[in-house]
Design brief:
By secondary structure, the protein is mainly α. It is built from two helices and two strands; from the N terminus they run ββαα. The chain has one domain.
């Protein structure tokens, strides 16, 4: 994790802004995306019914959905 060194500025209208380096910003985005993945995983585990399908059937379902989306 990158150590953040935010800079705080105020514009002439009195609005406050925070400025980060690109590296700091990218690190924050990566962290948020990882947390989002963890939340999705936790939700999926909570809602898991135990039902499983063969991988070739799963890929078939995905292909059908993609084909429908491509026609839109």
């Amino acid at each position: 994790m990158v150590k953040l060194r935010p800079q705080y500025i105020k514009d002439t209208a009195g609005s406050s802004w925070v400025v980060l380096s690109k590296r700091e910003f990218d690190s924050l985005i990566d962290d948020f995306e990882e947390l989002e993945d963890i939340l999705r995983y936790d939700k999926a585990k909570k809602n898991d019914t135990g039902e499983r399908i063969p991988m070739n059937e799963a890929f078939g379902r995905i292909d059908k959905k993609l084909n429908r989306l491509r026609r839109i």
